[in-house]
Amino acid sequence: MGDVVEIRASVAAQVAGFVDAGGGVGERSVLVKTLGHPEFTVGHQMDKVLPAASLAKMILGVALFEAGGRGDLDLDERVRVGDLGRTMYPSVLQAMDSETALTVRELCGFSLITSDNPAAEYVRALLGQERIDAVIKDLRLDSTSFPAGFSEPELGPLGRANVTTAEDTLRLIEHIDRTARLEPLRHYLVNYLRNDRIPSRLDDDVQVWHKTGSLRGVINDAGVVLHPAVPIVLIFLTDGQADNVRTAQEIGEVSERIVRTVAAGAAH
């Protein structure tokens, strides 16, 4: 194993480079934590409250499986595709006949694998705000607020009411990672189809379970790189970005450098 101090310093330099690449425009919050050896945490503005966007869908998943585990909700209840809301964004559900019935469990899967908004909004309404807030409280996500949904009118300025921090997101990720009954969520997230950020420059055989979030000027991504040398949590929260596409590319570039650095150190 390489020198932990040296590896940590190298990762810190990569994080600083990503922050500096923003040119002082907007906000960039970063958190890197290894879940094995070498073990360390590096971050920048980890307690900065920023828009969560679709990262909040992971909270829905936790709340749904918690409710199902208690017997409060039947995750195998079937829902007609035609009963879901509509969206101006591309949706796999649009390929299905309106009479096709999916289970609540499968709708949760769609909301996390494809970030489908109508599926997420159905799950949110089914849960109700009280169950969602209970998960936020139980996990001590003290700077997280999730009052808005994913209907079309809420995807603009109203959607910015959903906020979190990198520190809270780490607590959420670690809970999903270590909780046996949440294995379905990990399965959904490792099959996430929007891979233009953290996984974009990693080798195809390196699995990543993660969730992105996007609004105007907001490019987020958070999850776990399941590198065989050592699992690595990577969290990127941003706001006020001038070029969403470029910020997404920069997240991919710095993620690749961080993973390469940590994996090389873990191998020695």
Q: How would you describe this structure to a colleague?
A:
The protein is α+β, with helices and mostly antiparallel strands and 268 residues long. It has a single domain (4-266), classed as DD-peptidase/beta-lactamase superfamily (Beta-lactamase, 3-Layer(aba) Sandwich), CATH 3.40.710. Helix content is 40%, strand content 18%. Strand 8 (218-226) and strand 9 (232-239) form a beta hairpin. The longest helix is centred in the C-terminal third of the chain and has 23 residues, at 244-266. The N and C termini lie close together (4 Å).
Could you outline the blueprint of secondary structure elements for this entry?
Layout: H1 4-21, E1 27-34, E2 41-44, E3 50-51, H2 57-70, E4 78-80, E5 101-103, H3 104-113, H4 117-127, H5 129-138, E6 163-164, H6 166-178, H7 183-190, E7 207-215, E8 218-226, E9 232-239, H8 244-266
Antiparallel strand pairs: 1-2, 1-9, 3-6, 4-5, 7-8, 8-9
Distance separating the two termini: 4 Å
User: Could you give the count of β-strands?
Assistant: 9
Placed side by side, the strands forming the largest sheet appear as 2-1-9-8-7
- The residue-averaged pLDDT reads 94
Whole-number count of domains: 1
Element pattern in H and E: HEEEHEEHHHEHHEEEH
Structural classification: alpha+beta
Percent helix, as a range, is 25-40%
> Rg from C-alpha positions?
18 Å
Q: Ranges with pLDDT <50 over ≥5 residues?
A: none
Give me the CATH superfamily: DD-peptidase/beta-lactamase superfamily
